[in-house]
Structures are given as structure tokens and as C-alpha cells.
Amino acid sequence: MAVVRSFNSYDVFLNFRGEDTRKSFTNKLYMALVQQGLSTFRDEDTMNKGENLKSELEKAIRQSKSSIVVISKDYVSSTWCLDELVLILEQRKTSRHAVLPVFYDVDPSHVRKQSGRIAEAFARYEEQFKAETDCRRKRVLMKKIKGWRSALTEVGFLNGLDFQNHVNGHESKFIKKIIKIITDKLIQSTVVLKIGLQSEGCIGKITRIISMVNGELNLILIILILKLNHIKDMELLD
To answer: Which residues contact 87 (CB under 8 A, 6 or more apart)?
Structure first.
């Protein structure tokens, strides 16, 4: 008997700059993820006008098992993308949240070093910082810029996929590779518990297991084997 219970709302959180790839690459990637059976969050699917976008995005990231970060040519021009990236990497540090960077027409070294077009974007942010006269806002912006740089450096060093260096730029093959890798990452982050249960004390064992995983949003519990002597019918999970 196998029982599976997921503590997440989404398998994948898609982080991308809409103006660059929403109607092209990212849309194809999203459709491929859904066809693969992976529950995938992208902002246009669940956001309504008037909602607190920041809190909703934070919630979606926390309730996702993994993130695909699509870094395109003007990705860094979006403060929303950068704020999401910071949250994604924080989630990665505190849980089993898997992260796959996808460098789409962007050199990963430019991401790590914040050079090229990325340097130009940061130059604009730093101009805003210099022009800001409100001390509180200036401190907030300075902290954000520092956090964005750190996040880009970190994600640039993660194992990811560079569109130009994989499958000779064939988009469909590239997307298939992304699906394969993110699926493998999700499997690796799955906790498999193999349990031999006897009739005596089995309820206590189950209670301890459920207590152990309670609150772990990115954990899948799979009970593979139940050896129940003298117990014919038992519901483990509703």
C-alpha cells in the first residue's frame, strides 16, 4: 500500500521577466511543465488586481518545492524579479527548495560579475540611490541593491543551463532538458520513509512520523511498506 501526501501547493515557481519571455520561451516552458504534471506558479495565473502582490508572491515561493529562474537580457531591469530571486535563495537556504537557473541569451559570467547589460541596470539603480534625498528610503534602496548583487552572484554560481551552450539553441530540446533536470531535483528532494509496522505501537509510529513532517511545506511523505499483522483495514491518511 502506498500513500502520498504533499505539503506544497506548487511543484515549481517560475521567476522570469514578463516583457522578455512571457509570450515566447517562458510560456512554452510553462505549458511543458503543466503537461508533465507539475503544478507550476506564474504570476499571471493567480494574481488579481488589488491583491498584495508582494505577500502573495512570498507565499507562493514558500509553498513551492522548487524554482526555475529564467534570467533573460533585461531580467535585472525588473525589481520584482530581483526581489523574488532574493526570496527564492532565502528559501533554498532554509528548506529543501530546489533552484534551477536558466540563462536565456545571457552569459552566466555577466550574472556572476554583474557586467555587460547587468552593469548598466545597476548603474541606473545607483543613480536612483544617489538622487534619493529621504534618508530612510536611501537606506532601504542601498540594502536592496546589496541584496540583489549578492543574489545574482549566488545564482550565477549554481548549476544551471545556458541556452546558447545546450542543444545548439534548439528551444524545444532545451525545454525538455529543463523538465528532466527539475523533475530529477524534485525526486531528490523527496523524503522516502520505508516503514515496517507491527500491530503493536503502529499508531504511535505513524503519529511520530506525521509530527516530524508537520509544517514542512516542501516535503513529500511516501509510506512505501506497511506490514500490519492482524490488521486488515486501516486508513493512514484521509
So the answer is: 57, 58, 61
Residue 82 CA to its chain's centroid (Å): 13
Of 34-43, 112-121, 141-150, 227-236, minimum mean pLDDT range: 227-236
Q: What span, in angstroms and rounded, lies between the C-alpha atoms of 39 and 14?
A: 11
Distance CA 228, CA 198 (A): 5
Radius of gyration of the chain (CA): 21
pTM higher than 0.85 for the full model? no
**Which one is catalytic: 84, 200, 216, 235?**
84
Query: How does pLDDT run across 176-221, given as a tens digit for each residue?
Result: 999 999 999 998 776 544 444 444 455 555 555 544 443 443 444 4
Residues linked to residue 41 through DSSP beta bridges, in sequence order: 13
CB-based burial, 194-203: b 16+ in 10 Å, e otherwise: eeebeeeebe
- Taking the C-alpha atoms of residue 213 and residue 205, their distance in angstroms, rounded to an integer, is 13
Q: Nearest Cα to 192, choosing from 170, 172, 213?
A: 213
Please confirm, yes or no, whether 84 is among the known catalytic residues.
yes
